[in-house]
Amino acid sequence: MKKKTLLSIVMVCMMILLVACSGAKEKTGSNQPELDQEALDKVKKTGFPIVDDEITIKMFTAKSATSANVDWNDLLVWNTYRDLTNVKIDWVEQVTGDSLNEKRNLAISGGNLPDAFFASSLSNLDLYKYGSRGLFLELNDLIDEYAPNLKKIMEEDPNVKKGMVFPDGKIYSMPGLRDPNFLSIRIGARPWINTNYLEKLKMDVPETTEEFYEFLKAVKGQDFGNGEIVPYGGVNINDLVGWLRGAYGLGNTGASGLVDKDPNGDGLRFIPTSDEYKQLLEYIHKLYSEKLIEQNIFSIEWAQFMANASEGKYASTMFYDPQRTYRGVEADNYTSMSALKGPNGDQFYTNISSPIFNNGQFVITKNNPNPAATVRWMDYFYSDEGAKLMYMGVENETFIEEDGKYKYVDKIENGEHRETEISKYIPWVGINPPGIVKAEYFSGSESSEKSLEAAEKIEPYIPSEIWSTFIYTDEESKFLSASGEDIQKYVNEMRDKFISGDESLDNWDHYVSEIEKMGLEKYMEIQKAAYDRYQSQ
């Protein structure tokens, strides 16, 4: 009798275990459809064409307003690539940014799935949700077999792969990447100082936070023929904070989120409650309270900022190449600054992003009859030649090469509106397409001579490890989209109040206490779990 009872218990336990395993498998992607072996056999793993007989893939894409009236079904770049690959793209939906979210979500929820979503900015939360349900294909094996260019990037920079792998170990998208070596585009706005004003004051380019403060004080109230000078001006306060935080050792893993590595241990640090962050705010508050920072920096309109800049009113700023953007009376007199050394001896430039600028830029759906061919089609744009096609187009039709440099032909460069002219032939404008951006083929201000020179000055002070954005489980995302968002909002509001003086830094302990009440402990538990998964990839 006892033996029968024991056997029954064992059998029940085994059934429970099987059910649990089955449930876990379903949750991590057991709904993935079987791939068509006949379609796989027709795909060439190397060379062009990708397939001998032309196939058609239906794609949904985002487009910029400048290309809203351009039909991608007859675009020079896509036609050229079709002839090369034997893969024809039927751009079934071409939507501009203001309606992207609505139409993309309708395509998913309405069951009218395309074969792939291109440049459609799917969030990690949606990638995980629909990937685990089987609506989006798992790409691990397909990338391994049919995407040698992306695979190479993932191997050369492990943080790229870490930013693509979800908690179930699956990859559900092919990202938009910035070339890891194209540092200039990864640092965005950078610090500039007017050398003309430096010379008049007989001062050198500041190298420390104290020297920067002394320069701002010296230039305040001066009029060098352009009206009263504003010591520091910017289009927002975020850029200044992002630059200066490295002088206090903050953001030692780059610009991703509110946490970094704890410099005093092996764990994570919540930056906005750290002593170093308080020091940073005290310094910026000092600058603001002494009117060394433009007083309406929290609300300045873009037009007003650009007008001030073109009139030479800013002695220092955080922006893009002034020669390419300001085009004003002092535009030629700006030189770039690098990382400043802070009061504790820290000297880093931490406002740098991961090479992944959007993880959800290319997704293959369960409806796709040719997923391997689609992966091969997309992988080309992670290569040098593919990047050239995406950003420069076709030689002698949209660009020419002179002395090893690439530039658009006259009909584009001298057109009434440059971006509109580019959009008539080339798809990249305004959409951050999947694939890789390379300096030699990118014509934005980040690739100007001054911008590249600025990046060279900054490079020695970049942290050795730059994290991609962490990816969270559904349960973690629920907390982060509620309490986590509240914490983020409160941190940002209080940062501005501390800097402006609307809130005294004497109330720092109360500020920290409020964040703790909002769920900081749980927030950090989630970040630790995500970090552990990230490191294990």
TrEMBL record:
Residues 1-24 form the signal peptide. This is Aldouronate transport system substrate-binding protein. InterPro entries: Bact_solute-bd_prot1, SBP. The keyword Metal-binding does not apply. Pfam families: SBP_bac_1 (PF01547). The keyword Cell membrane applies. Keywords: Cell membrane, Lipoprotein, Membrane, Palmitate, Signal. It comes from Lederbergia wuyishanensis. Gene3D superfamilies: Periplasmic binding protein-like II (3.40.190.10). It comes from the Bacteria.
